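Hi support team,

I submitted a single chain yesterday and got back a structure, but I'm not sure I'm reading the token output correctly. Could someone confirm the output below corresponds to the sequence I sent? I've pasted both exactly as they appear in my results page.

Thanks,
R.
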Amino acid sequence: MVVGELGEVIRTAGLTKVYPKADAPAVDGLDLGVRQGELFGLLGPNGAGKTTTVGMLTTRVVPTAGAAWIGGIDVVARPTLVKQVIAVVSQQNTLDRSLTVRENLYFHGLLFGVPARQARRTADELLERFHLAKWADASVFALSGGMAQRLMVARAIYHRPAVLFLDEPTAGLDPQSRLALWEILGELIADGQTILLTTHNMEEADQLCDRVAILDHGRVLALDTPAALKQGVGADTVVSVQADGDPAALAELLTREITGVTQSRLTGAGVELQVKGGGANRLLPRVLSAAEAGGFAVADLSVAEATLETVFISLTGKELRD
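Hi R., thanks for writing in. Yes, this is the structure output for that exact sequence:
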């Protein structure tokens, strides 16, 4: 495997995918570099181009234009070689239902040419590491969603891939299973594994990723560490207000009366303000007082810290889940 001059394991240049009869490219001129040993996140709403990007990088989708390299290997020109140095965990359960939990790992090792004795030993080591040893001889049907996802990650790293691709890995998992998987991913990164993660879960990207690229309509809107992205918004607090009356008039009033408002927008139920340097304890009474003085009866009022969704809203004017 060849690592680029900047320590990049993944590199794309103008990577583009246009599907037949589509109104716009699914991925539009993507330029990315993912460094060795980092957990890199592609964050965006459904349809932003995250899954298509992963599809091209993992050879499942042929690019319309542009190029991509994994460990210096041209993804389009040498797809068979690329498949040998990557691993993919998709949203779907791809475990072999006819095999036991251990056998799903053991036979995977054999497929990669690992001798039987070593394959069995590595399978048992991975079952211990991923807290699945108790179910080694059980059918995969006995596993919960979170356990099955852990087994798929264990199988994916069996052959020590250069890059592990995770496509919405915690979609549909309960909070406890999600946290368990997050812990495992943290351990993998600590061991030097490079991971590319796609998600529309803001907390997941914020908690896990070293760097995040925010995508929409197949383009990168922003790319940096989660902390730097949030700092770049220019607001540290988000205020949500619901009140009787015209939301547009309320937004205009609060933007005028509340010091530090950098942006306001109408939501389905009220108004959202992005505020710089307000402080929750000071903002709540000020917003309530200004709204009531303007003739608005406040029904609900909340204050939260700026998140990656705040960044996305600042860039696009819409929520990640829209």
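A quick pointer for reading it: The CA atoms of residues 35 and 98 lie 38 Å apart. Let us know if anything else looks off.

Best,
Support desk
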